[in-house]
Automatic annotation (TrEMBL):
Cited SUPFAM superfamilies: FMN-binding split barrel
Domain of life: Archaea
InterPro entries in the record: DUF447_C, DUF447_N, Split_barrel_FMN-bd
Signal peptide location: none
Gene3D superfamilies: Electron Transport, Fmn-binding Protein, Chain A (2.30.110.10), Hypothetical membrane protein ta0354_69_121 (1.20.58.290)
Protein name: DUF447 domain-containing protein
Annotated organism of origin: Haloarcula rubripromontorii
Residue span(s) of domain DUF447: 25-137, 145-198
Length: 205
């Protein structure tokens, strides 16, 4: 699937997000790298505050930070697939096309640096996200699955294991707990996703 399969909406500043944003929505973003391939990463999208734009923050000199800075945009995608999300959050993954097959909806965004600073030794940049094109690929009835939520939380804990300001042992305890949730409440796909977490994280819990 490629972005050219858009159902329409046009490329203008009035393009709306294809979903109602609230709080922080965990998404997958693809950004074009210097090798002309699309880097896949996790991205938390913060809902607009009043009339302001939706925003996202990159931490460190990541590929997403580099590609946002050099390319000025990317494709934010809403996927329910826990394996795709785990790989986006914890691995280096590149694709030939910007839109993943698992994306239920996507939005192409232009980005603009809004704020920046450091926390400890880590640089952060806040980006304003402006939709320029979007499409809904499939409409689904939402369900609540604790296993899926546990996979998402596990990727957050895993990504912080090597950050000095976090308690590593506490994070490992959280990973063990999230794994138990996946084992008891997750589907086969969530279990496969947690196996990917184990494969991608250099730690035992």
């Amino acid at each position: 699937m490629t972005a050219d399969s858009s159902a329409g909406g046009g490329r203008d500043s009035e393009t709306a997000w294809p979903v109602a944003l609230a709080g922080v929505t965990e998404t997958v973003v693809t950004t074009l790298g210097p090798n002309e391939r699309w880097n896949v990463a996790a991205l938390g999208v913060h809902a607009p505050d009043g009339d302001g734009p939706a925003t996202a923050t990159t931490w460190g000199r990541t590929r997403t930070w580099r590609n946002f800075r050099e390319r000025g945009g990317g494709y934010v995608q809403f996927t329910r697939d826990p394996v795709d999300f785990a790989e986006a959050a914890l691995s280096v993954r590149e694709e030939d096309d910007p839109v993943l097959d698992s994306a239920d909806a996507w939005v192409e965004v232009n980005v603009k640096r809004r704020d920046a600073g450091t926390e400890g030794d880590t640089q952060w940049v806040e980006w304003a996200l402006q939709p320029v094109d979007s499409a809904v690929e499939r409409r689904v009835v939402p369900t609540t699955n604790r296993g899926h939520a546990a996979v998402v939380e596990a990727t957050v804990a895993a990504s912080r294991l090597d950050v000095p300001s976090y308690d590593r042992e506490a994070l490992l305890d959280r990973l063990a707990y999230f794994e138990s949730v996946v084992e008891t409440a997750g589907s086969e796909r969530e279990r496969a996703a947690f196996e990917r977490v184990r494969d991608l994280v250099d730690a035992e819990w």
